[in-house]
Backbone:
């Protein structure tokens, strides 16, 4: 995938990206299974493994490993515990998010709190949270680096919580009361910071200096923001079976996505009223949802979201110039566009 002269070649194709990710999954899955089997209570072990065992792309640990090898080939095995620890963080946040959002489907299966109960789901999330940091301490690096990684990961979880609170706050705001800047701050904290931590962790373990570590963090942060904007787009346009969750839930739950913000800020009175028939209405009919999406199209909100996601992708791609040519760098370039052009 890399030209002999080290030039900036065409990025990896979607098939190459998938093949690279697949080549990483065996080690990741094996390690996660080992960590999730440590415990005494059989129902607890079933509950904490419920989301991880449902699959998922494992984007965060793959990102950690790829960045580590892009910085110093062959160093990814030392970063594996850190990447898997972040995957457990991700899964614990999904458990709690589903509870807060009252979602019924995740990764094509009933959500954890609907299979067990809300109290057991909270407990499972708490246990995964604790386990994630125990796993991170097994990262193969010197004590100072591990201490920095755990400290930064803890701050990242703090910021994820702030992002989640902003997200919930937005649901209480009157329609149109959230700005794009406020939305982007929420997305940065709730979603992008965990991607940023995955990349920075891989870079640190591989011995990157502060400048390269920060460049990798910014690459992943911008990719993560684009990823979330695209995820909001998929909430409307993806096939539910492929997406693995309720399509249109963002509109019904009154979430101020980029598309909703643009629609509410630019729609005429009649279109705004039509959109509000579905926005924040959990009982919205199929016809009301279709009408709301038509309003989004007419106001240009859909095109605006796509353009913004593509802009973040371009900015993230430019950060990768700090890395030397390698198949790992080209995977990271391909990953940006795989994440934003995906259909689920």
Residues:
């Amino acid at each position: 995938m890399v030209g002999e002269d080290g030039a900036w070649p065409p990025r990896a194709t979607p098939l190459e990206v998938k093949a690279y990710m697949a080549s990483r999954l065996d080690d990741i899955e094996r390690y996660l299974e080992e960590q999730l089997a440590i415990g005494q209570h059989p129902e607890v072990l079933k509950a904490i493994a419920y989301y991880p065992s449902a699959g998922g792309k494992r984007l965060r640990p793959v990102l950690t490993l790829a960045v580590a090898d892009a910085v110093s080939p062959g160093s990814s095995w030392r970063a594996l515990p850190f990447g898997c620890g972040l995957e457990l963080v991700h899964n614990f946040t999904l458990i709690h998010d589903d509870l807060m959002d009252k979602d019924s489907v995740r990764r094509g299966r009933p959500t954890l709190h609907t299979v067990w109960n809300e109290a057991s789901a909270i407990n499972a999330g708490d246990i995964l949270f604790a386990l994630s940091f125990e796993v991170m301490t097994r990262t193969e690096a010197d004590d100072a680096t591990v201490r920095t990684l755990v400290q930064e990961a803890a701050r990242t979880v703090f910021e994820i919580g702030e992002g989640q609170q902003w997200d919930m706050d937005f649901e209480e705001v009157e329609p149109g009361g959230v700005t794009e800047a406020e939305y982007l701050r929420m997305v940065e904290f709730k979603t992008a910071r965990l991607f940023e931590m995955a990349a920075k962790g891989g870079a640190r373990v591989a011995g990157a200096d502060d400048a390269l570590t920060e460049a990798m963090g910014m690459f992943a942060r911008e990719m993560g923001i684009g990823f979330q904007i695209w995820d909001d787009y998929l909430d409307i346009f993806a096939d539910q079976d492929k997406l693995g969750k309720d399509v249109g839930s963002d509109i019904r739950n009154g979430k101020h996505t980029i598309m909703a913000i643009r629609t509410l800020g630019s729609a005429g009175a009649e279109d705004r009223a039509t959109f509000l028939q579905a926005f924040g209405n959990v009982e919205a009919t199929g016809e009301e949802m279709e009408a709301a999406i038509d309003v989004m199209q007419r106001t240009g909100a859909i095109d605006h979201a796509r353009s913004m996601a593509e802009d973040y992708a371009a900015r993230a791609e430019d950060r990768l110039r700090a890395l030397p040519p390698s198949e790992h760098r080209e995977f990271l370039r391909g990953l940006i566009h795989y994440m934003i052009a995906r259909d689920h």
Summary: The chain has one domain: 14-341. The mean pLDDT is 91.
